[in-house]
């Protein structure tokens, strides 16, 4: 199925609950994928799993990715990603078997940050959940694990991005590899990127439409992005944040939890890393169980 996000055609997979009855209406959930991902990967896994629990779910390719439109390809623009979630909510709100008063959103990794951002101004969203949420802005400014990045370093990077934009005027954007390939890994490669390669670039989670590329100047858009800036506006709607005990990104979920107003819940799954939560059954199953109970309670 497809829907429009502004003028861009978005491709999605709609998952229906067991015993689906066209005479009934159901609660529904929009599921947003990580940076560089596509709907057939972890977003599809969570969408299918939640559909089995009685929800209509929608996993889709964001603008510039997969089977969706949008040029240039592999552009990671936070404003486009947030717009896509809103458009997905609009699509579900107009679906004849969806109860428009019972729509929730779920985001994984960067999709989690975008989902939090979108819900701050979209009151059609009744409940918000994230898995291994990733703050795209903070990661660009401070690094994934919050390592100090000086003002001077950030300004130098933005200077280079500006120069690159000038070079690209009227031409093709500079596109580079997003995750190092397995043969590029060394003893010094951080575990986050080692695990990313194991998921995205192997049979475990790889998909031909997840191209492992990104438009280099996207990072300039990330530098000025603050997805948690108005997180208190989600309240009194509920927020559920699920992360892993060993996830390098755990501090993003903690920061969101600390800034949000009640009702809110932070679930830390023992022994789980960031990418364990993408597809490993021993971690995905308890995450889905908690989310299913959360959405069942709050999408009544």
Number of DSSP-assigned strands: 10
From the helix content, strand content and strand pairing, which structural class follows?
alpha/beta
The CATH architecture classification is 3-Layer(aba) Sandwich
Looking across the biggest beta sheet, what order are the strands in? 1-2-4-3-5-6-9-10
Main β-sheet: number of strands, strand sense, barrel status?
8 strands, mixed
Number of helices: 10
Please, what is the average pLDDT? 97
Strand/helix succession? EEEHEHEHEHHEHEHEHEHH
General form? globular
Beta content: 15-25%
Low-confidence sequence ranges = none
| Rg computed from alpha carbons, rounded to a whole number of angstroms | 18 Å
Keywords for this entry:
single chain, 300 residues, alpha/beta, Rossmann fold, two-stranded antiparallel ribbon, 10 helices, 20% strand
Short synopsis of the structure:
The protein has helices at 42-51, 78-93, 110-119, 136-142, 151-168, 191-200, 218-223, 250-259, 276-279, 281-298; strands spanning 2-5, 8-15, 26-32, 56-60, 98-108, 125-131, 175-177, 213-215, 239-244, 264-269.
Show the helix and strand layout.
Layout: E1 2-5, E2 8-15, E3 26-32, H1 42-51, E4 56-60, H2 78-93, E5 98-108, H3 110-119, E6 125-131, H4 136-142, H5 151-168, E7 175-177, H6 191-200, E8 213-215, H7 218-223, E9 239-244, H8 250-259, E10 264-269, H9 276-279, H10 281-298
Helix pairs in contact: 2-3
